[in-house]
Amino acid sequence: MVRRTLAPVLLGLLLTPTAFAINAPEVDKISEKHLKSNLEFIAHDLLEGRDTPSRGLDIAALFISTQLKIYGVQPGGENGTYLQKMPLESTVLNAENSMLTIDGKSITLGEGFLPTGLTAADVQSTPVFVASGWANVSKGIDPMKGLPLKGAIVITDNALPEGLTMRDATRDPNWESPAVAAKRHGAVAVITIANNPSTVSWKRQLDRMVAGGRYAPKSNNPVAALPVVTVTPEIGESLKTAALNAARAEFASAGPTITLKLDVQRREVITHNVIGIIPGTDPTLSKEYISIGAHYDHVGMSTADGTGDTIFNGADDNGSGTVALLEIARVIATGQRPKRSTLFIWYTGEEKGLWGSQYFCDNPTVDLKQIVFNVNLDMVSMSRPAGDTNPRNEKLAGVNEIHAIGPKLISSQITKTLTEVNNATVKMVLRDDYDRMDDPERIFYRSDHYSFVQKGIPAIFMFCGPHEHYHQRSDEIEVVDFAKLTKSTKLMYGLIYEFASQSNRIVIDGPVKNLFQSGS
User: Fold this and answer.
1) CA distance 185 to 417
2) Is the pLDDT of residue 2 over 50?
3) Are the CB atoms for 115 and 260 separated by under 8 Å?
4) Could you say which of 137, 184, 283, 501 would form a disulfide bridge with 23 (CB–CB 3.0 to 4.6 Å)?
């Protein structure tokens, strides 16, 4: 009798969605309703595209902090708050006091020349032409070597050496840009010849330099950069010819005299990472953290499109990751907590170059050595419907798919655990298009998780893929697949809960294990 009574009960438990061998005890509490309501706010026009820095981004940070306080998540920022201040330096160009002249002839700012980086300049010299200008001394490539560059202004076409891509050049520290190489050889400025400048684009860039300026992370030990400007092909070819003629002259020739003045004003502004902590339950393991992060910024506003829309709302990028983190924090904070502590980080400035994640990893609010694992969510709410032939959606994951980037590259343990959690929860197709050494797009190296990898912390990236709305005004809440967002959030809840419950740390045995051997 007892046996017959218990059998259906046991069977029912086995079939109950939350009765997993994997630790995902309250996965069904992940709510599509909560995700949607939070995203309606984060991607609203009032936040003006959440540029870094901006009033809209500050409003988003306040909203996230308020939600964490309501859920009972502990502050993980500075001075008992949820915020970590990140100082930026604003550089604004004073156009009236900026000029470029060649033998006394003035070149019009915004039409004939444009500053490439806002570095102050007050120099007068003669030009020396250098083809390409990119250098890699370790490979014996140094096109400026032996040229009379001390005190000179370098003219370059900025062409990359054959076989080198810009992505590879910027990710390999052995490669020097023309500006860096020119400084090493004693030059005082660099003039780059544009290929095909856009009058509209130059005007827009100049307006930003003059009105809003440019922003960059403030450095405690700034390295003085050379002033760099770009000139039109007509002006550039004229300078190139004059410089080459001067170099070839039988008797030394000074060539044209170039005067460059850039009046740049600097001021400090503040942006924020948002950080929350949910303490674990185990007396020992609670001193360690499973970290999950997402950038909450986007690209702000621009000129109106054909419909009059000026705002890049960033619903998928990365409103989706932002609200997924909030929902996971809500479920863990108000329910069953795992053994390890969980660390939630909303990064600022990802769109500008991984600013927030790099700043946190260089200025952590917890002991980095106690972070066991990091998961990064970026664009996790979009689906490619069957029959979609738009080439811009070619790599977009299907309605029951998601890209997992890093598990196979880093650890068989991560791969196994992610597979088991997925099978026990949402049963999505885990695509590995980007999780391989031969990925031509090198996606593994291009999002916030990589800031942790550089510090020796295993980290992965969950991503639905690029799509037609990426960095477009059309990335609004209407195009979001909320069923997909809910599944993605459930999967990530299960993954971090499982790793927060395991006793052992992750064993790194994948093909990129050398990256972790050099982590600091």
Assistant:
1) 52
2) no
3) no
4) 501
